[in-house]
Amino acid sequence: MTKTELINTLDYLNTVIENYRADSPDSQQAASRLSELVNGTIGIRELSFIGQAIGRSFTNSELADLILASKANQPLNEAIQLPAEADAAYTIKYQRRQAGMTQVQLAKKIGIEQSQLAKIENGSLKVSLNLLQKAMTVFGRSYIVKAL
Asked: Which of 10, 42, 82, 143 is 20 to 30 A off residue 61, Cα-Cα?
């Protein structure tokens, strides 16, 4: 499905959900299809994290970009611009998973507790530049702060 087709599908499903009674078969079918499209490709925690980071509802264009990125196995922060701290936290979690590491393993390598890493990855604790540098060194990667 192309981005345009995906946006059109999302527009249609949202229109049905908004204009039909919640208990109608059409509304329930549209809600189910929307859930399948979004939650079937993007993890609910990732979607929630990104939504909290941007501080607003997603546009259908953004949802389409996220769905397509997820289906292509690409990092979601390449599909939508996140604030720097959220982007860094997402990158650490994404790279850790790509490396097949647990939070315990990475935390030990960068000199923090697993609980601190969990809080960084879920956005409740801000990552310092020094810690980000240590994590990226473990992954053999660089991190570039993107301009807004």
From this structure: 143
